[in-house]
Amino acid sequence: MKKTLKITDIDYSFRDHPITGNLVLKNGADVIKQSVKTLVLLNMFEKPFSTISGNISNKLFEQMNYATESQIQSEIKTLLSQDEGRVEVQDALVEQKENALNIRIYYIIIGEDLPTQEVTVEVTRSR
Q: CATH number for the domain including 112?
């Protein structure tokens, strides 16, 4: 018998609940989805004294070819396997748009009977 996923975290949008006025909370698989997205978007040295980062924004100005896509996929899989122990990455697809990278990550939550989860992360050039 599998245990149910009981984790809670604040929603990073910092919206307030319309009735209570408290911060809105995320539960279960949504918490893990938010965590995966945060890890991928985190740049090197944004978090003081930590080397945890997806560092994907550095790849925005690279020539996008199969080697670069493969490197990004590998970095995402390594990052999530080391720093998000609740998931097992199935695939990471990288697609370049005009000034952005669109990354779709497919993963399963370890120890849960949930279908494959998907999170889409878009990294855009700021200039």
A: 3.10.450.40
